[in-house]
Amino acid sequence: MSPKTLYDKIWDAHVAHESEDGTCLLYIDRHLVHEYPVSDVRQGIVHIVGPEQGWTLPGMTVVCGDSHTATHGAFGSLAHGIGTSEVEHVLATQTLIQKKSKNMKVEITGKLRPGVTAKDITLSVIGATGTAGGTGYVIEYCGEAIRDLSMEGRMTVCNMAIEGGARAGLIAPDEKTFEYVKGRPHAPKGAAWEAALSYWQTLYTDEGAHFDKVITIKGEDIAPVVTWGTSPEDVLPITATVPAPESFKGGKVEAAQRSLDYMGLTAGQKLTDIEIDTVFIGSCTNGRIEDLRAAAEILKGKKIKVKRAMVVPGSGLVRAQAEEEGLAQIFIDAGFEWRLAGCSMCLAMNPDQLSEGERCASTSNRNFEGRQGYKGRTHLVSPAMAAAAAITGHLTDVREMM
Amino acid sequence: MEKFSKISGVAAPLPLVNIDTDMIIPKQFLKTIKRSGLGVNLFDEMRYDRQGNEIADFVLNKPAYRQAQILVAGDNFGCGSSREHAPWALADFGIKAIISTSFADIFYNNCFKNGMLPIVLPQEAVDVLMKDAEKGSNARIEVDLESQTVTSSDGQSFKFEVDAFKKHCLLNGLDDIGLTMEKAKSIDAFEAKAAMERPWA
């Protein structure tokens, strides 16, 4: 048998019907539509609650009517965000009409330097490949730096596969994955666990399997990063300066100029000189316990200088755990608002919005025009970087505070 | 679903890369799951000021483009969220085809489910059609799905690729769920087999 990628294996195990032209009916194991009452401690963002409750398991096909479903790929499950018509299709038929995507490998070799996190990895990859770099592909993230990440960190990486244009992001399950899943409310138990585990242990890319595109980044080359523009590909190390639009090619020249106008920035300005009004820590990208720990570590004993700062845990359980660990008190003492679980200012569908011209260091995933509020200005950063900006009142290299 | 075969219409130029779904239909309009009525809010924050007045120099507010049926746009159109409100808003406005060098994957798929044709062409072709679109209502661009061609107002023709199954569905106005139901036996058989092999799932 020819060697297969992880994606090939999961795909092959779920094709319920294949037409002559290669159009397939992909069988869907999990359609995340479950809702917990707002008063339930398990309530929260679906991409945080799903893994927490053990709904997400390795080797599964997972869909949800939200693009950040890619998050669940961290478990080695093939997870697609879908639109309303596809939601209807899955509800009616338990399948998705799909053609197989191409295989892309993103390898992060070696170790990360201190102060560099999963968010910096995933933003740096998008910075390198562009927001359309993954279009038509399913990305498998691998390499030592990925293996070294916790499950929370892996979810952060896969979460933003969608900002890189990919159909899905995947990380092969390993002992860390199995350890995380074991004992969760909806994870298999007893003999079913043993059977599942022996299957999950076959879920890796075979030696010599073919990838259509390969990107390799050295872990040690990744710095804490920040976005300067209005596309998630507008990524630079915090030590850099705002780029000149002329330094880009093609249609990106006008786009960069438009971004600078929108963001109120000038080419050549140091990123660390950019003053911040608001800090938002939360979202399906960075609303997990590890994210709150990383931010609290920086904030401990300090006070914020920004006008407004909020922490919105990704689920009620994350919130409860953070209170138990004393993190909530650190945030409150520093001057942060300690909020109930939800999406909040990532999507800004509720009143948590930026006002015109308000500038935010945000741990969310999209810096699009108007995303966090009409004419609001978003800089995407890691939780540690967000905490650093909260303390100094401007974008800051978190490594200087460690 | 409405059939799509051939259209000839005014194309609106949107020479911006990475036009995202938040631009196409901002979040405040996502509380509906009706597919109709969103056209008026298409590109809301680019099209209207805070008082709700039209911004005169936005392309779809210009007299020449109010009836546009085609959009010509920069790379990576439709990036961002899976909100199907984006194609719904475009369709409700009257857009039937979008031409770009590339589309975000979920948006691309969502278009076909709503009788809309996203067309991928090389940069040179998009440049020609963009120039053509800039001529306004005197320049009609023709899109023919059957022959998979786009023709500019001065007769330059460009061939495009489209998945055979998606083309078939669009040409015949076929509903995905109906087609899949014809394969219910395969799905049932698969499900029974999967229940044996992966009972934990």
What does this 3D model show about the protein?
The complex is a heterodimer of chains A (402) and B (201). Chain A is of the alpha/beta class. Chain A is built from 14 helices and 17 strands. Chain A has a 5-stranded parallel sheet with strand order 15-14-13-16-17. In chain A, strands 9-8-7-10 form a 4-stranded parallel sheet. The radius of gyration of chain A is 21 Å and the shape is globular. The radius of gyration of chain B is 19 Å and the shape is globular. Helices cover 32% and strands 16% of the residues of chain B. Chain B has a 7-stranded mixed sheet. The model of chain B has no long low-confidence stretch (mean pLDDT 95). Chain B has 8 helices and 7 strands; from the N terminus they run βααβαβαβαβββααα. With 201 residues, chain B is an alpha/beta fold. At the A-B interface, α3, α8 and α9 of A face α4, α7 and α8 of B.
What are the salient characteristics of this protein?
heterodimer, A: 402 residues, alpha/beta, four-stranded parallel beta sheet, 18% strand, B: 201 residues, seven-stranded mixed beta sheet, 8 helices
Rounded radius of gyration of chain A (Å):
21 Å
Largest interface: A-B, 64 and 54 residues
The gross shape of chain A turns out to be: globular
Low-confidence stretches of chain B are none
How many strand units of chain B? 7
Query: Percent of residues of chain B in helical segments?
Result: 25-40%
Strand share of the residues of chain B? Answer: 15-25%
Distance between the termini of chain B: 34 Å
Strand content of chain A: 15-25%
**What's the rounded overall pLDDT mean of chain A?**
97
Structural class of chain B: alpha/beta
Distance between the termini of chain A: 51 Å
Number of continuous helical runs of chain A: 14
Q: What structural class should be given to the helix and strand makeup of chain A?
A: alpha/beta
